[in-house]
Design brief:
about 70 residues; about 65% helix; about 15% strand
Length: about 70
């Protein structure tokens, strides 16, 4: 019977190269909360910060290797 396993090694290397998982999580939460009630002076910066964090999460997820083993 085959099982699916996920190799996170490359994904962890990628994320640690650019930002720590905690920092990425904090950036996403901070940007989401500030975009919900924006201060006009910081809105563009927060949107940019969120976009970068979302792209980092997407790269992390795409770096996970899915394998079938027996």
């Amino acid at each position: 019977m085959k099982k699916t396993v996920y190799d996170f090694h490359g994904a962890v290397e990628y994320i640690n190269q650019w930002v720590s998982p905690k920092e990425l999580s904090d950036n996403l939460k901070d940007a989401a909360l500030r975009c919900a009630t924006p201060d006009e002076g910081m809105r563009e910066n927060m949107i940019l910060k969120m976009q970068i964090a979302v792209l980092d999460v997407c790269e992390f997820l795409e770096s996970i290797i899915e394998r079938e083993i027996e």
